[in-house]
Design a protein that fits this description.
With 450 residues, the chain is mostly beta strands. The protein is 7% helix and 48% strand. It has four domains: 80 residues, no CATH class; 166 residues, no CATH class; 80 residues, OB fold (Dihydrolipoamide Acetyltransferase, E2P); 70 residues, OB fold (Dihydrolipoamide Acetyltransferase, E2P) (Beta Barrel), CATH 2.40.50. It is elongated.
């Protein structure tokens, strides 16, 4: 794309950041815009053809190639590198502050943490569509998160201690405040609540929304996410409309809302995530004991004897589930009326059992079941040809080892599960589950006895 260079040189202060070889340009061609991709520490920061949005909402080219040299706005470069920059209009001076020591601190060579932290840490706001357990290049456990940050796609590894908080809130609307270092790593997360929410009475494009409680102005550079029927966020570039259900966030406290999450014609029940379950944390935390306790308290595997319609304290329709979770009795409410899907009671038959189901469930700190996923058996039911107490079973001529801590449920003549503490026997009909991938043996057993 060709354009005249006139009028843009003032917006580009930092020169010669990147030299790109080009062929000889004709005399009447002065500049090319947005011709390069830009990465920071190997991570994509700017794509070819992308413009740069200023604070007033207007856009300018992200890069200009002029006679073989590429020029990039110094303010955006400072954002990408975590460098502080100011402009003194009275003296026409661009002021750049790096992580170098101030002149007054000469001789104090050991104290750099405060300066570095102030320079490199910045706040950003993110939404997450996925969060899974993974490992980094060093084999350390990490949380792998996918979503959006500041309106751009996000695919990143984070400290493993964040996995539980994020994964337990994936089915609810929630915005996260993050601290990001100069390398683009997330070092802290904290869930934040919407400042205002409700159904829009009217909406002036992307400039303002009117709720029953009043009219609220939106930033020129507002980031809008739509919560879809797939219970995921997508970046939304259109205009808000009357009837949209909106959540408004003012992250810079300037009385204009700069992040909006909304639904339109959504078929499910919308709820904001549990911000109390998400404490601010640092990636250098070494309290693995508390992390493990939190994981055990918020996730597990359950069998369900009853699943009934009920209502919570606010009068919202939910489900009440009764059964066992990780070998202990469970009687809990769900967060929504359809959290448990495709449930049926187990059926004892002359040849085994039907309709058994194991659920992977997540609970918040109040003990409310916020998600449930039915899992498949690793070994479908078969008759035990041999059974070595609770240590192993032989099914179809193959030996399957059981974990020392295996939880065993029996399907009874009353068509329900009961916790079983005895030994398995020959001719038992047995179904096996491996839920922790520990290689210590199958850790959940469902069986019936003729």
């Amino acid at each position: 794309m060709r354009k005249q260079f006139k009028g843009f040189i003032v917006g580009f202060i930092l020169a010669c950041l990147l030299v790109v070889p080009t062929t000889a340009l004709a005399d009447n061609i002065q500049a090319y815009f947005n011709t390069v991709n830009l990465t920071v520490d190997g991570n994509s920061a700017v794509k070819q053809g992308e413009n740069y949005q200023l604070e007033d909402g207007s856009t300018v080219p992200f890069s200009i190639n002029y006679k073989g040299t590429t020029y990039i706005p110094i303010r955006k470069v400072s954002e990408l590198l975590g460098i502080t920059i100011n402009y003194d209009n009275s003296t026409k001076t661009v002021q750049i502050k790096t992580n170098s020591k101030d002149a007054n601190t000469q001789g104090k060579t050991n104290d750099t943490s405060t300066t570095n932290s102030a320079v490199t840490a910045s706040k950003s706001y993110a939404v997450f569509n996925e969060c899974s357990k993974s490992s980094d290049s060093n084999g350390q456990k990490v949380a792998h998160a996918v979503g959006f940050m500041e309106g751009k796609k996000l695919d990143i590894n984070m400290d493993y201690s964040y996995y539980n908080s994020i994964s337990s809130n994936l089915k609810s609307i929630l915005l996260w405040e993050t601290s990001v270092d100069s390398k683009g790593n997330i070092t802290k997360i904290k869930a934040v609540s919407a400042s205002k929410s409700g159904s829009t009475v009217s909406a002036d494009n992307r400039n303002s929304v009117t709720l029953s409680s009043g009219e609220y102005a939106l930033e020129n550079k507002v980031v809008i996410y739509q919560w879809t029927d797939d219970n995921e966020y997508k970046l939304f570039s259109g205009n808000l409309k009357a009837g949209d259900e909106v959540y408004l966030y003012d992250t810079n406290s300037n009385k204009k809302y700069d992040v909006v999450i909304f639904t339109r014609g959504y078929n499910g029940k919308v709820s904001e995530g549990d911000t109390s379950a998400s404490k601010e944390g640092s990636s250098d935390s070494k309290d693995s004991t508390s992390t493990d306790k939190q994981s055990k308290a918020s996730a597990g595997y359950a069998v369900i004897n009853e699943c009934n319609k009920n209502a919570n304290d606010d009068g919202d329709k939910v489900q009440q589930i009764v059964g066992f979770k990780d070998g202990s009795k469970m009687d809990a409410l769900t967060s929504e009326s359809n959290t448990i899907k495709n449930w049926s009671e187990p059926k004892l038959t002359d040849t085994g059992f039907n309709d058994v189901g194991l659920y992977k469930i997540s609970l918040n700190k109040k003990g409310i079941v916020i998600s449930a996923e039915k899992v498949s058996a690793n070994v479908e039911q078969g008759k035990a040809e041999e059974a070595n107490q609770r240590k192993s079973v032989v099914i179809g001529g193959k030996t399957y080892n059981l974990s020392d801590k295996a939880v065993v449920y029996q399907v009874t003549k009353d068509d329900e599960y009961k916790l079983f503490s005895g030994n398995l026997k020959e001719n038992d009909m047995i179904q096996l589950y491996e839920t922790d991938s520990s290689q210590a043996g199958y850790d959940i057993v469902i069986f019936s006895r003729p």
